[in-house]
Amino acid sequence: MMLTEKFDQLKALFQEMEQALIAYSGGVDSTLVAKIAYDVLGDRALAVTAVSPSLLPEELEDAKIQAATIGIRHQIVQTHEMENPNYTSNPVNRCYFCKSELHDTLKPLALELGYPYVVDGVNGDDLHDYRPGIQAAKERGARSPLAEVGLSKVEVRQLSQELGLPWWDKPAQPCLSSRFPYGEEITVAKLQRVGRAEIFLRKLGWQNLRVRSEGDTARIELPPEQIKEFVLKTDLQILVDAFQDFGFIYVTLDLEGYRSGKLNQVLNREAVGVKV
């Protein structure tokens, strides 16, 4: 299907909804959903961002700026997944409990405000990855317009660019809890440590990256083609000193490079059918 056809389908979906509350993280996907929803529904669309320790403050500021640029009404709510041991123990289906908390917060809000639909930014590619959070959202009646019309991540960026959204090429920024190997307990202090490390690297000019945390070790992931430049241009001693100030003891560089969902490679796909 041509991109223009999918775009038309997206607009038709929102016309049918008449009102929609958007689970809006400020990422490329949910921002495109917010943009189209606002263009179709105007003030009958509301973007809501959930704030918790797993969200970088910088990401919240980006979400605010982007919402203001679009023109959509924007509301912030607090979620409390860190109070759930099913989440902080970091099982393989951790995202299920995160999205459960999110949609258990958004659905009552939507009903209270008179919005019949909660929609998210899940795209067509997400359906082919291990994403237990999608199940939690579906169980609570959320809709995923991008996935419904089969829009891929590449198409999300392409359409965002065609619509003039300046953040169309913004790197993916999943919640900070995704930086920890399954089974390692997640704490607010650990989330803050990882967040500060990633902010430090971004201020040095490296944007598409991850700092994976395992015990007291930080493992930096960069696109493979940037690794050599990173080693040559970065004052490694200053970097190590900074990371140790953040609370890490060891600092390493992943020679394979950054790959989305890398921590999922430890999962036995046939055994992932976790009951929730």
UniProtKB/TrEMBL annotation:
GO terms assigned for molecular function: transferase activity
Keyword Transcription: no
NAD/GMP synthase domain sequence ranges: 18-81
Gene3D superfamilies assigned: HUPs
Entry-linked Pfam families: NAD_synthase
Family matches, as PANTHER family: EXSB FAMILY PROTEIN (PTHR43169), NAD_GMP SYNTHASE DOMAIN-CONTAINING PROTEIN (PTHR43169:SF2)
Name the record gives this protein: ATP-dependent sacrificial sulfur transferase LarE
Organism: Nostoc paludosum FACHB-159
High-level lineage: Bacteria, Bacillati, Cyanobacteriota, Cyanophyceae, Nostocales
